[in-house]
Automatic annotation (TrEMBL):
InterPro entries: Methyltransf_25, Methyltransf_Superfamily, SAM-dependent_MTases_sf. It is an enzyme of class 2 (transferase). GO terms for molecular function: methyltransferase activity. The keyword Mitochondrion does not apply. Pfam families: Methyltransf_25 (PF13649). This is Class I SAM-dependent methyltransferase. It comes from Dactylosporangium cerinum. Residues 70-163 form the Methyltransferase domain. The lineage of its organism: Bacteria, Bacillati, Actinomycetota, Actinomycetes, Micromonosporales. GO terms for biological process: methylation. Keywords: Methyltransferase, Transferase. PANTHER family: METHYLTRANSFERASE, N6-ADENOSINE-METHYLTRANSFERASE TMT1A. SUPFAM superfamilies: S-adenosyl-L-methionine-dependent methyltransferases. The keyword Methyltransferase applies.
Length: 269
Protein backbone atom coordinates (compact mmCIF):
# COMPACT_ATOMS: atom_id res chain seq x y z
CA UNK A 1 0.00 0.00 0.00
CA UNK A 2 1.25 3.45 -0.87
CA UNK A 3 2.08 5.53 2.18
CA UNK A 4 0.53 8.98 2.23
CA UNK A 5 2.90 11.85 3.04
CA UNK A 6 0.41 12.71 5.80
CA UNK A 7 1.42 9.60 7.78
CA UNK A 8 4.18 9.93 10.37
CA UNK A 9 5.23 12.42 13.01
CA UNK A 10 4.04 16.00 13.16
CA UNK A 11 3.24 18.85 15.55
CA UNK A 12 -0.35 20.05 15.39
CA UNK A 13 -3.45 20.84 17.40
CA UNK A 14 -5.47 17.79 18.50
CA UNK A 15 -8.88 18.02 20.15
CA UNK A 16 -9.73 16.22 23.44
CA UNK A 17 -11.67 13.39 21.76
CA UNK A 18 -8.88 12.67 19.25
CA UNK A 19 -6.30 12.77 22.02
CA UNK A 20 -8.30 10.39 24.23
CA UNK A 21 -8.93 7.94 21.36
CA UNK A 22 -5.24 7.94 20.43
CA UNK A 23 -4.12 7.40 24.04
CA UNK A 24 -6.51 4.56 24.63
CA UNK A 25 -5.50 2.78 21.44
CA UNK A 26 -1.79 3.44 21.95
CA UNK A 27 -1.58 2.32 25.56
CA UNK A 28 -3.73 -0.76 24.91
CA UNK A 29 -1.44 -1.77 22.06
CA UNK A 30 1.80 -0.77 23.79
CA UNK A 31 1.04 -2.12 27.27
CA UNK A 32 3.01 -5.37 26.89
CA UNK A 33 6.04 -3.63 25.36
CA UNK A 34 6.00 -0.86 27.99
CA UNK A 35 5.96 -3.35 30.85
CA UNK A 36 8.59 -5.55 29.21
CA UNK A 37 10.89 -2.53 28.90
CA UNK A 38 10.20 -0.69 32.15
CA UNK A 39 8.52 -3.19 34.49
CA UNK A 40 11.72 -4.25 36.27
CA UNK A 41 12.76 -0.62 36.89
CA UNK A 42 9.30 0.25 38.25
CA UNK A 43 8.96 -2.88 40.40
CA UNK A 44 5.72 -4.60 41.41
CA UNK A 45 5.33 -2.80 44.75
CA UNK A 46 7.27 0.45 44.52
CA UNK A 47 6.56 4.14 43.90
CA UNK A 48 9.08 5.50 41.38
CA UNK A 49 8.29 9.06 40.32
CA UNK A 50 10.47 9.29 37.22
CA UNK A 51 13.31 7.87 35.08
CA UNK A 52 15.77 9.56 37.46
CA UNK A 53 14.65 6.91 39.97
CA UNK A 54 13.31 9.20 42.71
CA UNK A 55 11.17 7.09 45.03
CA UNK A 56 8.25 8.27 47.15
CA UNK A 57 9.82 6.35 50.05
CA UNK A 58 12.66 8.93 49.96
CA UNK A 59 10.89 12.01 48.62
CA UNK A 60 7.75 11.96 50.86
CA UNK A 61 5.89 14.24 48.47
CA UNK A 62 2.52 12.79 49.46
CA UNK A 63 3.07 12.99 53.22
CA UNK A 64 1.96 10.22 55.57
CA UNK A 65 -0.65 8.23 53.64
CA UNK A 66 -1.59 5.76 56.40
CA UNK A 67 -5.37 5.71 56.81
CA UNK A 68 -5.83 8.12 53.86
CA UNK A 69 -8.05 7.73 50.80
CA UNK A 70 -5.78 7.88 47.76
CA UNK A 71 -6.57 7.91 44.03
CA UNK A 72 -3.89 7.18 41.45
CA UNK A 73 -4.75 8.31 37.93
CA UNK A 74 -2.90 7.01 34.85
CA UNK A 75 -1.68 4.19 37.07
CA UNK A 76 -0.39 1.88 34.33
CA UNK A 77 0.56 -1.38 36.06
CA UNK A 78 -0.28 0.27 39.42
CA UNK A 79 2.98 -0.48 41.24
CA UNK A 80 2.65 2.96 42.95
CA UNK A 81 -0.82 2.10 44.23
CA UNK A 82 0.36 -1.23 45.59
CA UNK A 83 3.23 0.52 47.40
CA UNK A 84 0.79 3.06 48.85
CA UNK A 85 -1.40 0.16 50.02
CA UNK A 86 1.57 -1.30 51.92
CA UNK A 87 1.96 2.11 53.61
CA UNK A 88 -1.58 1.83 55.00
CA UNK A 89 -3.50 3.90 52.42
CA UNK A 90 -6.92 2.97 51.03
CA UNK A 91 -6.13 3.20 47.33
CA UNK A 92 -8.02 3.18 44.03
CA UNK A 93 -5.84 2.75 40.93
CA UNK A 94 -7.32 4.10 37.69
CA UNK A 95 -6.26 4.28 34.06
CA UNK A 96 -7.82 4.91 30.65
CA UNK A 97 -6.30 1.78 29.15
CA UNK A 98 -7.65 -1.74 29.71
CA UNK A 99 -4.32 -3.07 28.42
CA UNK A 100 -2.41 -1.28 31.17
CA UNK A 101 -4.97 -2.36 33.77
CA UNK A 102 -4.45 -5.99 32.72
CA UNK A 103 -0.84 -5.53 33.80
CA UNK A 104 -2.04 -3.95 37.02
CA UNK A 105 -4.09 -7.06 37.72
CA UNK A 106 -1.12 -9.31 36.89
CA UNK A 107 1.09 -7.24 39.23
CA UNK A 108 -1.43 -7.72 42.04
CA UNK A 109 -1.48 -11.47 41.50
CA UNK A 110 2.34 -11.67 41.40
CA UNK A 111 2.85 -9.54 44.51
CA UNK A 112 -0.19 -10.55 46.54
CA UNK A 113 -0.93 -6.84 47.14
CA UNK A 114 -4.38 -6.06 45.73
CA UNK A 115 -5.89 -2.65 45.07
CA UNK A 116 -9.21 -1.83 43.37
CA UNK A 117 -8.70 -1.14 39.66
CA UNK A 118 -10.89 1.23 37.66
CA UNK A 119 -10.96 2.12 33.98
CA UNK A 120 -11.54 5.87 33.83
CA UNK A 121 -10.52 8.98 31.94
CA UNK A 122 -8.74 11.40 34.28
CA UNK A 123 -10.65 14.23 32.61
CA UNK A 124 -13.99 12.75 33.78
CA UNK A 125 -13.47 11.06 37.14
CA UNK A 126 -16.44 8.89 38.19
CA UNK A 127 -16.37 9.99 41.83
CA UNK A 128 -18.38 12.30 44.03
CA UNK A 129 -16.95 15.58 45.27
CA UNK A 130 -14.47 15.52 48.15
CA UNK A 131 -13.84 11.80 48.64
CA UNK A 132 -10.01 11.57 48.47
CA UNK A 133 -7.20 12.92 50.65
CA UNK A 134 -4.51 12.44 48.01
CA UNK A 135 -4.46 12.15 44.21
CA UNK A 136 -1.23 11.28 42.43
CA UNK A 137 0.33 10.05 39.24
CA UNK A 138 3.80 9.30 37.92
CA UNK A 139 3.71 10.36 34.26
CA UNK A 140 0.09 9.21 33.90
CA UNK A 141 -2.74 11.01 32.10
CA UNK A 142 -1.56 14.66 32.41
CA UNK A 143 0.89 14.64 29.45
CA UNK A 144 -1.65 12.89 27.23
CA UNK A 145 -4.83 14.97 27.58
CA UNK A 146 -5.58 17.93 25.35
CA UNK A 147 -7.45 19.74 28.13
CA UNK A 148 -5.15 19.28 31.12
CA UNK A 149 -6.90 22.20 32.85
CA UNK A 150 -9.94 19.94 33.03
CA UNK A 151 -7.89 17.21 34.75
CA UNK A 152 -6.76 19.79 37.32
CA UNK A 153 -10.40 20.78 37.95
CA UNK A 154 -11.50 17.14 38.22
CA UNK A 155 -8.75 16.33 40.72
CA UNK A 156 -9.65 19.45 42.71
CA UNK A 157 -13.31 18.38 42.77
CA UNK A 158 -12.68 14.84 44.09
CA UNK A 159 -10.20 16.00 46.77
CA UNK A 160 -11.24 16.91 50.29
CA UNK A 161 -10.27 20.39 51.53
CA UNK A 162 -6.62 20.19 52.57
CA UNK A 163 -6.04 17.33 50.13
CA UNK A 164 -2.84 16.91 48.15
CA UNK A 165 -2.28 16.51 44.39
CA UNK A 166 1.12 15.48 43.05
CA UNK A 167 2.02 14.59 39.48
CA UNK A 168 5.19 14.08 37.49
CA UNK A 169 5.61 14.92 33.81
CA UNK A 170 8.40 15.33 31.28
CA UNK A 171 10.13 18.58 32.22
CA UNK A 172 8.70 21.21 29.82
CA UNK A 173 12.18 22.39 28.79
CA UNK A 174 12.87 18.93 27.27
CA UNK A 175 10.50 19.87 24.42
CA UNK A 176 13.16 22.23 23.12
CA UNK A 177 15.37 19.23 22.26
CA UNK A 178 15.14 16.19 20.02
CA UNK A 179 13.91 12.96 21.63
CA UNK A 180 17.45 11.61 21.74
CA UNK A 181 19.36 10.34 24.81
CA UNK A 182 22.71 11.02 23.11
CA UNK A 183 24.64 14.05 21.81
CA UNK A 184 21.86 14.79 19.33
CA UNK A 185 19.59 15.54 22.27
CA UNK A 186 21.79 18.35 23.55
CA UNK A 187 21.01 20.85 20.80
CA UNK A 188 17.99 23.16 21.10
CA UNK A 189 15.87 22.84 17.95
CA UNK A 190 12.23 23.51 18.88
CA UNK A 191 10.55 26.56 20.34
CA UNK A 192 9.70 26.14 24.02
CA UNK A 193 6.63 28.25 23.27
CA UNK A 194 5.22 25.93 20.59
CA UNK A 195 2.22 24.36 22.34
CA UNK A 196 1.15 22.21 19.41
CA UNK A 197 0.95 18.53 20.36
CA UNK A 198 3.52 15.92 19.30
CA UNK A 199 1.43 13.65 17.07
CA UNK A 200 2.05 10.33 15.39
CA UNK A 201 -0.67 9.77 12.79
CA UNK A 202 -1.72 7.22 10.19
CA UNK A 203 -2.30 7.71 6.45
CA UNK A 204 -5.74 9.20 7.11
CA UNK A 205 -4.15 11.73 9.53
CA UNK A 206 -5.85 9.96 12.46
CA UNK A 207 -3.65 10.46 15.56
CA UNK A 208 -2.26 7.18 16.95
CA UNK A 209 -0.04 8.72 19.67
CA UNK A 210 -0.37 12.17 21.17
CA UNK A 211 1.70 13.96 23.78
CA UNK A 212 0.89 17.47 24.87
CA UNK A 213 3.37 20.24 25.64
CA UNK A 214 2.74 23.07 28.09
CA UNK A 215 5.28 25.50 29.50
CA UNK A 216 6.07 25.53 33.21
CA UNK A 217 4.02 28.73 33.50
CA UNK A 218 1.05 27.07 31.75
CA UNK A 219 1.12 24.15 34.18
CA UNK A 220 1.25 26.42 37.22
CA UNK A 221 -1.52 28.63 35.80
CA UNK A 222 -3.77 25.57 35.26
CA UNK A 223 -3.22 24.45 38.85
CA UNK A 224 -3.93 27.91 40.26
CA UNK A 225 -6.98 28.38 38.01
CA UNK A 226 -8.44 25.12 39.37
CA UNK A 227 -8.05 26.48 42.92
CA UNK A 228 -4.82 24.77 44.04
CA UNK A 229 -1.94 26.27 45.99
CA UNK A 230 1.42 25.12 44.60
CA UNK A 231 3.61 23.76 47.41
CA UNK A 232 6.64 22.53 45.49
CA UNK A 233 8.09 21.98 42.05
CA UNK A 234 10.65 19.19 42.24
CA UNK A 235 13.28 18.78 39.49
CA UNK A 236 14.99 15.47 40.37
CA UNK A 237 18.71 15.40 39.68
CA UNK A 238 20.31 12.49 37.88
CA UNK A 239 22.05 10.27 40.46
CA UNK A 240 25.80 9.74 39.88
CA UNK A 241 25.44 5.96 40.12
CA UNK A 242 22.45 5.68 37.73
CA UNK A 243 23.66 4.40 34.36
CA UNK A 244 20.29 3.36 32.93
CA UNK A 245 18.41 5.11 30.15
CA UNK A 246 14.66 5.46 29.55
CA UNK A 247 13.85 6.71 26.07
CA UNK A 248 15.33 10.21 25.85
CA UNK A 249 16.35 10.21 29.56
CA UNK A 250 20.03 9.38 29.97
CA UNK A 251 22.98 10.07 32.29
CA UNK A 252 24.49 12.32 29.60
CA UNK A 253 21.50 14.67 29.47
CA UNK A 254 20.48 14.20 33.10
CA UNK A 255 23.77 15.63 34.31
CA UNK A 256 23.15 18.86 32.36
CA UNK A 257 19.44 19.68 32.57
CA UNK A 258 16.26 18.37 34.20
CA UNK A 259 14.17 15.63 32.58
CA UNK A 260 11.26 15.53 35.00
CA UNK A 261 9.09 18.08 36.79
CA UNK A 262 7.01 16.99 39.80
CA UNK A 263 4.26 19.38 40.90
CA UNK A 264 2.96 19.19 44.47
CA UNK A 265 -0.19 21.16 45.23
CA UNK A 266 -2.83 21.48 47.95
CA UNK A 267 -6.56 22.14 47.88
CA UNK A 268 -6.94 24.90 50.49
CA UNK A 269 -8.61 23.76 53.71
C1 LIG B 1 3.78 6.73 30.71
S1 LIG B 1 2.45 5.73 31.27
C2 LIG B 1 2.69 5.86 33.05
C3 LIG B 1 2.11 4.69 33.77
C4 LIG B 1 2.55 4.56 35.24
N1 LIG B 1 2.10 5.67 36.03
C5 LIG B 1 4.05 4.36 35.33
O1 LIG B 1 4.72 5.11 36.06
O2 LIG B 1 4.53 3.45 34.66
C6 LIG B 1 1.05 6.78 31.00
C7 LIG B 1 -0.28 6.21 31.47
O3 LIG B 1 -1.29 7.24 31.38
C8 LIG B 1 -2.49 6.61 30.94
N2 LIG B 1 -3.39 7.63 30.37
C9 LIG B 1 -3.24 8.29 29.21
N3 LIG B 1 -4.28 9.14 29.03
C10 LIG B 1 -5.10 9.00 30.10
C11 LIG B 1 -6.32 9.60 30.51
N4 LIG B 1 -6.93 10.52 29.76
N5 LIG B 1 -6.86 9.23 31.70
C12 LIG B 1 -6.27 8.28 32.47
N6 LIG B 1 -5.11 7.67 32.14
C13 LIG B 1 -4.52 8.03 30.97
C14 LIG B 1 -2.02 5.57 29.93
O4 LIG B 1 -3.00 4.60 29.67
C15 LIG B 1 -0.77 5.03 30.63
O5 LIG B 1 -1.06 3.94 31.47
Amino acid sequence: METSPDAGVTRRAVNPAESRRASRGWWDADADAYQAEHGAFLGDVDFVWCPEGLREADAHLLGDVAGKDVLEIGCGAASCSRWLRTQGARVVASDLSAGMLRHADAGSTRSGVRVPLLQADAAALPFAQGVFDVVCTAFGAVPFVADSGRVMREVFRVLRPGGRWAFSITHPMRWVFLDDPGEGGLVAVHSYFDRRAYVEQDEARVPTYVEQHRTLGDRIRELVAAGFVLDDLVEPEWPDDHQGTWGQWSPLRGRIFPGTAIFVATKPA
